[in-house]
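Weekly structure sync, notes
Attendees: PL (lead), two postdocs, one rotation student
Agenda item 3: pending single-chain targets
PL asked that the sequence for the first pending target be pasted directly into the notes so everyone works from the same version. It is reproduced below exactly as submitted, 133 residues in total.
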Amino acid sequence: MFLILTQEDNPLYEKRFQLKKQTLNSQQILNAQFALHSSLDIFDEKLKTSKELFLKEIEQKQDYKIYGYVTSSGLRFLVMTDQDEEKVKGFCQQAHEQLIKVLMNPLYQIGQPIVSFYFDYYISQLIQNKLNP
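Predicted structure, written out during the meeting:
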């Protein structure tokens, strides 16, 4: 699962994807969302001590790791996956590049959920190539 959150923890974008080649049922989706949101306090603590955009592994829940990434404008990415750190870092960097294109769009209102078909398609392709090989 991939989330983009504002500085105030408001969700801008969410993308669900298979973990370990399994489609998540509704209870597993709720558990994943809870795990991601519960890791925000740890994210904030790591952010205070880090000078990097990629905060590496924030927390581990069951068989999955939660990684964090922060943009220069303070938007936060949370990724729950079973993939290694380098793949997640590459995913976050490329997702950040696409996010910048969305934010530069004059029709996008800052702070509103991202509903761009192009952005969603690009993130789906990134997930397929980087996080679900």
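Discussion points:
- The radius of gyration is 14 Å.
- The beta strands are 2-5, 11-15, 54-61, 64-70, 76-81.
Action: rotation student to compare against the earlier draft before next sync.
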